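Researcher: Good morning. I'm working through a list of sequences from a screen, and I'd like to move beyond sequence-only analysis. For each chain I'm collecting a predicted structure so we can compare shapes side by side. This is the next one on the list. No need for commentary yet; just the structure.
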Amino acid sequence: MKIKSLALSIALILVSTSKQAVEIEKIQLPDMGDSSGAIISPAQEKELGESFFRGLHSETTINQDMEIQQFIQTIGQQLVAHSYAPANPFHFFVVMDPNINAFAGPGGYIGVNSGLILLTESESELASVMAHEIAHVTQRHLYRSIEQSERMSIPTIAATLASALLAIKAPSAGMAGLMAVQAGNVQFQINFTRDHEKEADRVGMNTLFDSNFDPRSMPIFFERLQQATRFYGSGVPEFLRTHPMSENRVADTRGRAETYPYRQYPDSIGYALTKAKLAVIAETDKKVALQHFAVLELQGTVEQRAVAHYGIGLAYLDMQQFEAASSVFSKLTEQYPTQPQYISALARTEVESHNFDKANQLFAKAINTFPSNDAIKIDYIRSLLKSSHPQQALIILDTLSGTEKRQPIYFELLAQTYADLHQPGESHRYLAEYYYASGATEDAIMQIRLARDEKDLNYQLLAILNERLSFFQAEQEDRKAKRK
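Model: Good morning. C-alpha cells for this chain:
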C-alpha cells in the first residue's frame, strides 16, 4: 500500500501550492546530502521526465504556439539562472486549460495553465508561481517523497506518475480517487507535502528577488486567490478547492516579502503580448475579445494601448477579417519595427489571405532582423510549405535551435516537408517521431512500418527505421506489462 499512498504525495506536489502557512524566517536550506541520488540517476531522471512530458500530450493540450512557448521559456530560464541549481535542465510549457494551475513534474518539466497566466496582473506574479515550482525541483521534493515511502524501480515510479496525471487534468476527480486509496496514511503524506510547500515558498521567494522580480508579488497573488473563496461560495474554482489559501500563509509570505527592499518592477512587453494572445485564443466569441481590447485601447500608456491594438488585430485575424487585421498590424509594425510579434502577425495575416509571396518576403526580412527567433522561423516554414517551397523550408528547419528540434512541431513539419519533396520513407519516419513525442507510441509504430514498406530505402535509413521500431515496440511492451 506504500506505493498507492505515494501517488497521493506525488499528485499533491505536481499540482502544488501550499496547504499550510509558513513561518517568517531567514532562508535555511536543508541538508541536500540525502540519498535521493541513489534512487534515480541523472540519466534515469531525464528519461522519466521525457516520458512524463510525452504522457501529458495525450492527457491535455500542450501549447504549440511558438511565441507563447518562447516567452514562458525565457521567464523560466531567467529564474533558473538564479535558483539553487542553475545547471539543472528545465523545460517550461503552457497547458491550454482555463483552470488555474501550475505543476512541477520529474526532470525539470514545469507546466503553467493558460488560465493561471490570464489571472495574473503582473509578470512578477506569474514568476512567483514559477519560482515556487522551480524550488520543488531544485530541492528534489519528488524524490525525497519517494525516499520517504519506498525505494522503487524506474518503471514503478513512471507508473505511479502516470496515475497522478488525472490529478493534473481534473483535480477534483484525480485527488478524490487518490485520497480514497489508503485513508490511514493520508495524514502523513499531507504533512510531508506541507513541509515541501513551506520550503518551496521560502526558496522560491529568494529566487524571485535574485531574478529581478518583485518578491511582494507572491503574497499579492496568494491573497487574490484566498479572497476568491469568499465570493465564489460553493462554485469556487477547482484550484481553490484543492489548494486553499489560508490567512496565515498570505500574512507570512507578505511579512517575508517586506524584508526585501522596495522598488518598481515593470512588466516586459513579452508578458503583455502573451496575455493578449492567450486572451484571444481563450475567448470562443471573438467579438467579445474585440470589444474587450477596444475598451483597453482607450486607456493606459502608449505601449499598453499598442498591446490592446495587437489584441484587436488578433481578433480580426481569427474572424478572417484580413483587411482589418492587416491594417492594424501594418501600423504596429511601422510604429514598433523592432517588435517581432507585430511583423510576424502581419506576415501570418498575408498567409491566411493567400498572399504567399508577400508573406514570404515579410518573413525573410524578419529572419534577417531576428536571426535567432524560432517562432518566426516556424511560421516562415509553414508559409513556404503552403506556397510549395519545401526545399527552402528544409533549409530553415535546419537552422532551428536544439531545444526546438526536440518538440513535436519540428517533427511534424519535417514530415510534411519530406512528403512535399516526394520522399515518403523520410516523411513516415518523422511522422513517427511526431507521434512518439506526442505520446502516441502505437501510431509511431504504424508510421515506422509504413516507412519500411517504401521502395528504394537506402541502408542507413533502413537501419534507423529498424532501430526506432525496436525502441518503440520495447516501450509499448513495457507499458502493457505495467498495466497488468
